[in-house]
């Protein structure tokens, strides 16, 4: 067996199940689950219609690169969403079966550990801390070593690359960034992108920009800045830059497993080669439904409005008893408590039948601390009434 499998840690939700083992939640209250970032809003009818109208596609093998219609729809969406020059749909865009599998597979492609036996050190993969655990697992199984950059209230929940030692940067081959961030909801500024691009140009590492939450924001006229947009505004092209996006949150289709990667054409070419052998081409019916989704923005505006209504009401209520503020984007509240995060999660589950995720489960001990300690992550994915009920219970309880 691959020895690196032994390095993988239990997923946060497994740890949560273990934490709650033997605990009986308050039977007088219905359960409200705020722990997992799984969209609960209705899937738009136009997507369901496109899916069912194209079931004949199940009779053919899909290609790895996907249909030209899908790649064109994605390219058009990128151009209008980020107001940039359209990418080449044949060379710079690749459909993927959800951003999760692509974020993992990407490290297996770009990490070169062929000299590890000579240098006696592994390649480095930098990621934020707290983070999406796929980044860590991808690094381990690619034979690399994770390096965590703590994001805290003190540094504005930003990755402070000025604190990374030069010897670490020289070994760095891949940097995962998440903007809007999970769990903080923070969006990287143009100046922060400029710093990261300069380091990438200097040290030659590749940037994997996870933007799966890019379409959940609260000011319609102020969409979050994206990686490709930042590189365009800075006039640098897309060298060593790949963005990852998904329909799961944007269009409420997490079960459809549909997203894309886009950016540096040379990297896309190698990633497409890997995926040809990997065998993860997208279902033709899903391709057709995805094309319809990327071509339509109206349902995304409606989706944002549903989230905005919940955050507008719930955030100030919880701010009376927890340290929490509106995120820049995404659908999480990252709330700090005076109690330990695991203790608070147990109390809320046992006494209020509300499930939240302890922040320490989303982070690792690094540089002397676990930056998720004393935080809880709440995903406002349930209905407006359920989120309001949960906020009322927590407010009164605390």
The fold-level CATH name of the largest domain is Aspartate Aminotransferase, domain 2
Write down the overall geometry.
globular
CATH class of the largest domain: Alpha Beta
For the residues shown, what is the average pLDDT? 97
Instruction: Report the count of strand segments.
Output: 12
Q: In terms of per-residue confidence, which ranges show pLDDT below 50 for 5 or more consecutive residues?
A: none
SSE-based structural type: alpha/beta
Largest sheet: 7 strands, mixed
Intertermini distance: 48 Å
Strand proportion? 5-15%
Q: How many H/I helical runs? A: 15
Radius of gyration, in Å, reads 21 Å
What's the multimeric state? single chain
Q: What would you say the CATH architecture of the largest domain is?
A: 3-Layer(aba) Sandwich
Strand order of the largest sheet: 2-8-7-6-5-3-4
The CATH homologous superfamily name of the largest domain equals Type I PLP-dependent aspartate aminotransferase-like (Major domain)
Helix percent reads 40-55%
């Amino acid at each position: 067996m691959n020895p690196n499998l032994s390095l993988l840690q239990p997923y946060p939700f497994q740890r949560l199940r273990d934490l709650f083992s033997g605990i009986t939640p308050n039977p007088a209250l219905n359960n409200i689950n705020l722990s997992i970032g799984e969209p609960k809003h209705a899937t738009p009818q136009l997507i369901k219609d496109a899916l069912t109208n194209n079931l004949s596609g199940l009779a053919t093998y899909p290609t790895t690169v996907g249909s030209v219609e899908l790649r064109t729809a994605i390219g058009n969406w990128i151009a209008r969403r980020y107001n940039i020059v359209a990418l080449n749909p044949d060379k710079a865009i690749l459909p993927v079966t959800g951003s999760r599998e692509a974020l993992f597979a990407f490290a297996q492609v770009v990490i070169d550990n062929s000299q590890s036996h000579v240098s006696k050190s592994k390649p480095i993969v930098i990621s934020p801390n707290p983070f999406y655990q796929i980044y860590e697992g991808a690094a381990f199984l690619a034979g690399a070593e994770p390096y965590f950059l703590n994001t805290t209230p003190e540094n504005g929940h930003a990755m402070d690359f000025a604190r990374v030692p030069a010897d670490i940067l020289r070994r760095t081959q891949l940097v995962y960034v998440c903007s809007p961030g999970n769990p903080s909801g923070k969006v990287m500024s143009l100046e922060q992108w400029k710093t990261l691009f300069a380091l990438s140009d200097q040290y030659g590492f590749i940037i994997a920009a996870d933007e799966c939450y890019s379409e959940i924001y609260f000011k319609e006229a102020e969409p979050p800045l994206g990686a490709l947009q930042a590189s365009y505004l800075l006039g640098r092209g897309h060298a060593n830059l790949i963005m990852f996006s998904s329909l799961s949150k944007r269009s409420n289709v997490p079960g459809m497993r549909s997203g894309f990667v886009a950016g540096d054409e040379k990297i896309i070419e190698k990633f497409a080669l890997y995926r040809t052998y990997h065998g993860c081409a997208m279902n033709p019916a899903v391709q057709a439904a995805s094309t319809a989704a990327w071509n339509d923005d109206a349902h995304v505006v409606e989706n944002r409005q549903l989230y905005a209504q919940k955050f507008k009401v719930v955030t100030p209520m919880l701010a009376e008893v927890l340290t929490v503020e509106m995120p820049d984007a995404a659908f999480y509240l990252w709330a700090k408590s005076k109690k330990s995060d695991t203790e608070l999660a147990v109390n809320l589950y046992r006494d209020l039948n509300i499930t939240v995720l302890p922040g320490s489960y989303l982070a690792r001990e690094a540089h002397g601390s676990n930056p998720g300690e004393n935080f809880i992550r709440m995903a406002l994915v349930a209905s407006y009434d359920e989120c309001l009920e949960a906020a009322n219970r927590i407010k009164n309880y605390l």
